[in-house]
Design a protein that fits this description.
The chain is mainly beta and 97 residues long. The protein has a single domain (21-92), classed as Ferrous iron transport protein A (FeoA) (SH3 type barrels, Roll). The protein is built from 2 helices and 6 strands. It has a 6-stranded antiparallel sheet. Residues 4-16 have low confidence and may be disordered.
């Protein structure tokens, strides 16, 4: 399980908290952009072959908490298990017009 911890400081000049998170935590219907990919070389090759690369826009079509996601990446819809979805680190983006 990934955990992001924010350091405890009283400094008011601290930048805002990090806004990236694993794709597996995104909400149904949400648009996100791929920030980076984690995992070994086989995982990175697999994701790239599916069209998932840094900068790609992804929309969550369907979300099943225990099993996985159906996503839209470009004109393609893909089903991902939660293990693979948690290796795709994303940031929120504006909804497609």
């Amino acid at each position: 399980m990934l955990m992001f911890l924010k350091p405890l400081t009283s400094d008011t000049t601290t930048p805002p908290p990090e806004t990236t998170y694993p794709l597996g935590l995104a909400s149904e219907g949400q648009w996100v952009r791929v920030h980076h990919l984690s995992g070994g070389e086989p995982t990175l090759k697999k994701l790239t072959a599916m069209g998932i690369a840094v900068g790609a826009r992804i929309r969550i079509i369907q979300r099943e908490a225990a099993t996985g996601l159906v996503i839209q990446c470009g004109e393609t819809r893909l089903a991902l298990g939660m293990g693979l979805a948690h290796k795709i680190i994303v940031e929120p983006t504006q909804e497609e017009q």
